Amino acid sequence: MISVDEALDRIFLQLDAPQVETVPIARAHRRVLAEPLVATHTQPPFDASAMDGYAVRAAEAVPGRQLRLAGTSQAGQRFAGMMEQGQCVRIFTGAPLPIGADAVIMQEQAHADGNLVRFDKAPAAGQNIRPRGHDYRQGDELLPRGVVLTPARISLAASANAPTLAVTRRPRIALLATGDELVAPGGTPGPDQIIASNSYGLTPLLSPHADKIVDLGIIPDDRRALESALLGAFDYGVEIVVTTGGASVGDRDYVREVLIDLGVTLDFWKLMMRPGKPLMFGTRGSTLVFGLPGNPVSALVTAMVVLLPTLRQMTGHADPFWPQFGLPLAAPLPPNGPRRHYVRATLDRNERGLLQATPIAETDSSHGMSLAQADALIVQPEDDPGQPAGAVVDVIPMNWG
After folding, report:
1. Which of 284, 254, 242 is nearest to 266 (CA)?
2. Is the residue at 319 inside a domain?
3. I need a labelling partner for 184 at 20 to 30 A (CA). Which of 46, 244, 276, 390 fits?
């Protein structure tokens, strides 16, 4: 039995460098940038007005003095020529600043009488102007390698005139659940059966990091059926195979034996964590194989703790362990034993409006209701003596993708 940290180190050593592909910017959401995005032009490309108003020479816009209106500058159609002394130009937000102007006075501080305009207050030079290159300049690195392409980052890339982006390839994943006791949702379970749930939780959890997820369904506790299903997954050419159930040491827990028979080299099969001790990891050629526990909470928690960082590392994330951060406890955390405990917790705001974590007392690995109620997992170290309310603990927020 090894620690979670050692397990992740071993897994990461098996990973190749991320491969790169180019996608249209419209399909880049949530992908990981494979190469730095460098500006090919300056933005804004000219001095521009930051609001609707009048472009003036600051020294001439004396309160009460009238300036003659020389024309208009609007977005996409600048004022032609040079603004002469004693003149002003009607200007709109985003429009190029006329040559000769060095300030913009907002329209609420101006009073027009025909072609003559007077102002309430003298402006400072540079007022209400976005200078050329205020956002970025040609050659600037706009986004570094390894960031996730969020809507704001995609918008920035679009403004930088990037119709396509270099992103990392995402792996294909095959899922299968094992167990005679399982019946698919919508089925009628026998007296000794339960409804399967693991694949239905794992699919949306892993999908943001996968090119494709193939659900191979429920496989009975039968060696030949399990061999056939696993060979089908390997033949499909997926990069990752994930099984749930059959990873323990019961008489009908065949997954470990069958994987070995099929040429999988197992690296480890027990972790010092709870929930989720019976977790297997191995390789078959370049394919990664994960055997997750069958209990629903254990399956999802081990996927969050082990599979998600693996997928982020495979796809070149700058920080494969993001998001994880510290929050104060709203209630005491009981002592922990020798296995790292991923404690279910809710998040809410204290009287100051700051986020805090409240541990959920339920720790059973099959209690799906408590995991559904949780907003985060508290990472409680091995042999932790317990923590009082107010102590800061590490948390892994759930449902953040």
Report:
1. 284
2. no
3. 276
